[in-house]
Amino acid sequence: MGMNTLLKMIGAVNAGESSIEPRADAPLVLLVGNPNVGKSALFNKLTGQYVTVSNYPGTTVEVSHGHCSQLGRDVEIVDTPGMYSLLPITDEERVASDILSSPRVRVVIHVVDAKNIDRMLGLTLQLIESGRPVVLALNMMDEARTLGIQIDHEELSRRLGIPVIPTVSLTSEGVAELIRHLKTPPPLSMLRVECGTLIEQAILDIARHLSPASPIAPRARASLLLQGDLRERERLVQEKGEHTAATVLAIVAATRAKLNHSPHYYVTLALRTHSGQLLGGCISTPVRTPDKIRRVLDRICTTPLTGYPLVALVLYFGLFVLVGQFGAGTCVNFLEEKVFQSHLLPWFSSLVNTHIPWQPLRDLLAGDYGIITLGLRYAIAIIFPIVGMFFLVFATLEDSGYLPRLALLVDRGFKRIGLNGRAVIPIVLGFGCDTMATLVTRTLETKRERIICTILLALAIPCSAQLGVILGLLSVSGAALAIWAGVVLSIMLLTGWLAAKLLPGAQPMFYMELPPLRLPTLMNVLVKTYTRMVWYFREILPMFILASILIWVGQITHLFQIMIQNMKPLMRGMGLPDESAVAFLFGFFRRDYGAAGLYDLQKSTTPMTIHQLIVAAVTLTLFLPCIAQFLVMQKERGTKVTLWISGGVLVTAFTVGYLTHIALTLFGM
Hints:
Layout: H1 3-10, H2 12-15, E1 28-32, H3 39-47, E2 51-55, E3 62-66, E4 76-79, H4 91-100, E5 105-113, H5 117-129, E6 134-139, H6 141-146, E7 150-151, H7 153-160, E8 164-166, H8 175-183, H9 197-207, H10 218-226, H11 230-240, H12 242-258, H13 263-279, E9 283-284, H14 292-302, H15 304-355, H16 359-366, H17 371-400, H18 402-415, H19 424-430, H20 434-440, H21 447-459, H22 464-474, H23 478-502, H24 522-556, H25 559-573, H26 580-589, H27 591-602, H28 610-621, H29 627-637, H30 639-666
Parallel strand pairs: 1-4, 1-5, 5-6, 6-8
Antiparallel strand pairs: 2-3, 3-4, 7-9
Helix pairs in contact: 5-13, 9-10, 9-12, 11-12, 14-15, 15-17, 15-22, 17-22, 17-24, 19-20, 20-29, 21-23, 21-30, 22-27, 22-28, 23-28, 25-26, 26-27, 27-28, 28-30, 29-30
């Protein structure tokens, strides 16, 4: 799963603004391709604002649908999830494969990165063999030209038997030509890839048992069955019954017994060999050596000796300086003290007291825990600058191409906690918003990895608002900051290691496209930051208002005071003041809400000691996931798993908080 798919997920709310419900019988134009090839950008050029995003039936994988004004609403354009092969591995590839099997498909646009066409042409050949009309879009041609790569697309088109169109999705180059081929679908190509005598005979024998009326050509389906595609096997049982399926499986088993390697190995080798032959004479690359500066930078990013110090610098300047000091310090102080406390809150309170006679309603709007005085103040004055700075840092790293290299760097370490390098994307994104990051765990290949990553996000990854407040509060002591980070990191690693030992499943494999390192583009960074901030505020503002209402209800029914009273012994057991119970009660609604409550407590006339700050920060970091994250966990992982995770997180948070208090007391801090 690439960054384009990630952007598509977190931009889903924006895309849905001009939603048009797709017709159930509309012909489909599919955009298919590897992650990081500009597929979604090309989709946006074709569809403009006429886009809707929905979950694929029976899954949590989101698919973008749209309409092109030049094709009319009778044709639906679908941006399928990223895939590397017709033989699916991840949920996203399975969804893409299912969509390809639809009888409504009219044209398949295979979008490839022109710089890496030699590695991506194999999927083009598979799509051709599937019996679909295919158009090959050589995207990112501007970058290929910059590198001196020349592709004779007309000769390649003749050899493949399909249209081949150079495109640049960011500038709309080739889009008009692409639309022309969508109006009149191209004829089917007769190109076939020979995979060797044994494989070819097996494909022929299996194809005899398949329905010729299937949307996917029998040859392509036979190849997938031979390679062990379970979804294709299920379709065969549904179409032909158990007896035919058993006959086909017998052919597969007999063929496998005669081969030295798996059928997939021979099919992949044949595709790669045939791709090389087709490109021979069609593509020329410069004989000069690759950019030495980029090669050096790549080594710096991915070699442990230099990569980990670079990560430390990114964390220091990106999280501590920009998010913690500037966002949670300078920006929060200005908005909270200069704007809200000095001007807005007095004006709101005066307005409410003048025009609303009923005291309980006054308290709901402008009381100590009111919608305006607490909910909006927390969301705008405290959360907004912190989250905004994080998303700015994240967008910069993403646009530079650094994140895939970070994934490669940490892959070996992540495997010790049951994950692979790909998990670095939801983990890093969790420092911005754990809710969003929990959604992105669907990019991981196995259910085991998704559960482990969800546990770590719920337990040990503070969102940017919570992290910013904690960094701001602990920055008064380097030792306090180091103890907090050490405890949280240790709990994260221990939990991941235990989860990897206890949860069944195979060791995860790692593969990811490495885009070139680039200087971030200011406009791209700002657009990505804005998109994520819009998404975040649409999620956070209703939750903050709801939290204020629930606290108000708790006050007028005295439930709020009862809960605080019951929590005070727990606070005292951890060496915390009674007043800190309010911050943890806020944390039941949102963890960042609780962090803001901790900020308020520290700004009061009786601030906590360094000892108490460390304990409170550790416990609150490991605290329950917020309501939004809980709901997303329930949607993604199911109710039973979510309740187990939440219960374990709650017990772990207070247990570790208590042990931290005991340890600090023993060492005299």
